[in-house]
Amino acid sequence: MSGAPAHEHRHRAQRPGRLHVTRVRRVHRVTPRMARITFASEDLTRFLSNGTDQHVAMYFYEPWVVLPRPFTTEAARELLSRARPRLRRYTIRSHRPEMGEVDMDFVLHGGDQLASGWAEKAAPDDEAIWFGPSPAYPLDQEQDWTVLIGDETALPAIAVMLEQLPGNHPVQALIEVADADEELPLTTGIDARVTWLHRGRRPHGRLLLEHATRLKLPGGSGRVWGAAERSVVRELRRHFVRDRGLDRAATHLTAYWTKGETQDSEV
Prior knowledge:
Helix content is 21%, strand content 33%. The protein is an alpha/beta fold.
């Protein structure tokens, strides 16, 4: 998927999302702490990808809720007065419209967590309802370089961007994971340098911040994309904008999670 013109990526980033009622087709443990779940439905043959860090909102209803059938966007809206789902947001790792399939990677935080617990127990034919995709980060290949920074929650988005950037575009990626077992094979161009950071017993994000502050940026104009825990993202933004002098518009730094808080959001 690399090599598409920048204007095409900007166009794709704006395709609207819709509700999808899917079934689990496959579950594959890609690392000890990450499961790749393949969702399938005939509806997904018409799925329009926005690329890069596009995400979907997965719907989790209480067990007592009886969903109307067919379960459409209109039916979901009508149900809101009686039952609201809890939402979790996940990045689309890949999609195969010709097969009606979409892959998402789930970091397994523990069985007591809502989406993580569901992912640990997910099995073929389980139903999964989600809305998406969201707008996505538009790659700009006219820039001189790109820097990608994130922890394991950002790994799916980083992997997609590495695939979509042209092979001769200079890219540096810093990825913090628990240990060497959590590294994944990544498709990159010839001018990409990926640095894996093994957290071990250190606090989340500490290694990421240490290496980001020492990162040597190339000359010319470039862009920085990053996603991690909220306080880590705050420090990254301060460093690149205040300390390095990058224009805020040249940085796209997003909190994917917040320490000590659930990630619930409402429809």
